[in-house]
Design goal:
The complex is a heterodimer of chains A (about 280) and B (about 180). Chain A is α+β, with helices and mostly antiparallel strands and about 280 residues long. Chain A contains 10 helices and 14 strands. Chain A has 3 domains: about 50 residues, 2-Layer Sandwich (Uridine Diphospho-n-acetylenolpyruvylglucosamine Reductase, domain 2); about 110 residues, Uridine Diphospho-n-acetylenolpyruvylglucosamine Reductase, domain 3; about 100 residues, CO dehydrogenase flavoprotein, C-terminal domain (Enolase-like, domain 1). Helices cover about 30% and strands about 15% of the residues of chain B. In chain B, strand 1 and strand 2 form a beta hairpin. Classes of the chains: A alpha+beta (about 280), B alpha+beta (about 180).
Amino acid sequence: MLLEAPRFALPETLGEALAMRAERPEAVVVAGGTEVMPDLLWRNRTAAGFLSLRRVAALRGTTTDGGDLVIGAGTPVAALTTAPDGGLRAAASSLGTPLVRTEATIGGNVVSALPYRNLLPTLLASGATLELTSSTGTRVVPFAGFVTAPARSGLREGELLTAVRLPVHVGFADYAKVGRRNAQFVATASAAIVSRDGVARLAFGNAGPTPLRSDAVDAAATALLDGRARPEDLRAAVAAAVDPPEDAVASAAYRRHALGVLAVRLVTRAAVDAGLGS
Amino acid sequence: MSAVEDPRPEVAGGTDGPDGSVTFGLTVDGTAHQVTARWNESLLTVLRDRLGVRGPKTGCAHGRCGACAVRADLGDGAHVLCACLVPAATAAGGTVETIASIGGPDGELSDVQEAFLAEGAVQCGICTAGFVTAATELLETNPDPTRPEIESALYGNLCRCTGYGRIVAAVETAARARRGATR
């Protein structure tokens, strides 16, 4: 431990971090601080103390294991802007600012579990899995279903998200979002695509209380990709599948429309990438 | 500790009692400090209000404006970050370099600072330390940046006076001068 005060723990190893997690269940786990610190400033949340993972070097860095890219949960988003996956690259590059991306981590983005977080649609579209570790061991769960409600996840007491595993797809992957302005914006609505062997798979952010995908949307996207359907067919499939929030930023109707536009935009890019059209 | 005592109770640790404080070492601009701060204080608050280091400015306090940008090494390699987003005790044993480390010890300006003056890239000044910090970091890694590369590197710094044109010109001028000097 680099530091152990009654309300602040700064572990250096994963073992120390897990021991602290079990010992101090009331402490807020903080990595980069890019979400937690503004939340405390604006009193969006209260905290009884911090368990900072910022100095646990074992949580940082990316390796490959079989067909998976294994990304340590403490890896900063800045490191993902050059990832081999196009979807992850696009989502990371449009998150915050360069000064935020050096601190924000993939783990924080996932565990915050808010439907507008940049990386979530990409993880859902590409079939990512999560390594959840406690002092008794590690379990690997699909990212699909991990987020159960806004800001709620399947992380159990005593567990830390330690890595995100992303299957390395041969094919096309991308991410797009719209917001209220053209710089430093949080997604009003977002979408990610993975397309390979002529099959498209889409996932959406802020399209419902949790990251969302649907077989009907993927069927319509795949049909559009190979010219069996029109853009309006995909837009209709998206509109039927999503249940977007209504809030001060945008109406549900606006988001439903925007999600359809983003879906068609991403399928068009996939088609261009595959040499199927322009 | 060379701290300036902060009279505000919410900063001076009054609300949390003795259990809410945390004590750690921190090196700022080459000077080692022993800091006692509230557990949830930001690095920016510690720098400005406890150590009296006023180079980094408080702008938005949530990572959007870059006025508090400093170069810090928290054990994973020095890089520029927003001091407002870092829980201060996270930096225990780390080093921070503010704008004071970019200029000379007797107040002489760095080449980037001179270029900001020459190009009229400074108006009210609250953003300047952050811009110079980010621009200095850019030129360390990319001595010949294109205009889009400069704009992209400064994307996390906001200026409400200049309209950015003169700031980008200043970085181009500094880069040109630096390349000329090493040629």
